[in-house]
Design brief:
about 325 residues; binds pyridoxal-5'-phosphate; six-stranded mixed β-sheet
Amino acid sequence: MQNICPTILTNSPAITPCTILEHPWFRKYQIKVWVKHDYRNHPTIQGNKWHKLKYNLQQAIEDNATTILTFGGAYSNHIAATAVAAKQMGIASIGIIRGEELAEQPEKWSHTLQAAKQQGMALIFISRQQYRLKHDAQIVQTLKQSRPNLFIIPEGGSNDLAIKGFDELSHQIQQQVPNWSHIFCPVGTGGTLAGLVANLSNQETLPAGQKLLNREVCGMAVLKQANYLLPEIEQWIAAHSSKKPICWRLEPNAHCGGYGKTPNYLRAFQHRIENTFGIPLDPIYTAKLALAVYHQIRNKTLPAGSEIVLLHTGGLQGRAIAKSLP
Ligand SMILES: *Cc1c(COP(=O)(O)O)cnc(C)c1O
């Protein structure tokens, strides 16, 4: 019998707040800005990682999985989230981590890796070359044969079940800001962007007598040359949209030098936003999101009258780690 953890699967996450930001600057540009505080849903299985894992964990239980295997880099929030979820469900977990050099140097492990290990995740470090093969890497083949009840979740947690998992969040945003014109989210793999677009499209209903608003979901890529993500994002959206998808776009110039690069101007901007609005950000995703949106407002890319929602996807486990561990 599987040990199903009620806090993970049977409790849906609480409705997280969505608050309007007050600043003279926004009035000057005649736009309204909301933040959807989705990071408040869980300390570690935080923000978008919760939504992506939800149906995957359910499927793992239905499949009688005894081990969850997944992939990530040394700073992967998805690795941290999966380790916690698996532990709470009483299922073993294995993380295939990019970078074989780390195997011999635990003193160089990130907080994320240390925390995953403490949660009981077995970490296997492989070369970048093997990592590129992902599901076909030698070690994964071997594990598949030796452990028949293995449930595999791709890198970043993004797959069809993950896309479906953005149903509740999309509904919440729709209820909280019914007249939104733009929703912005950070993009790593694009699963979150696809999940929002597909579910918002499916839930789109025109209030009686109201004009169709011009709406767009915009993903801010935190890595360089992100356009390679587009075909997969398009596939996810097509597979999950029962109606014509609403407009969406991937913004490729929000990466500040590349994935995991956090130049001083980004850190300074992050602190300014944190101090002004009292909202904690992470430098890898949400600070880059905020900076890219700031530029769009300043460049008047967003027309007067826009009502925009910034999705705070989480990523705070790196700073909260010391407090959240048992
Ligand atoms: C993983 C992560 C993302 C990226 O989400 P994708 O669905 O992979 O695009 C964005 N924000 C935070 C905080 C994350 O941890």
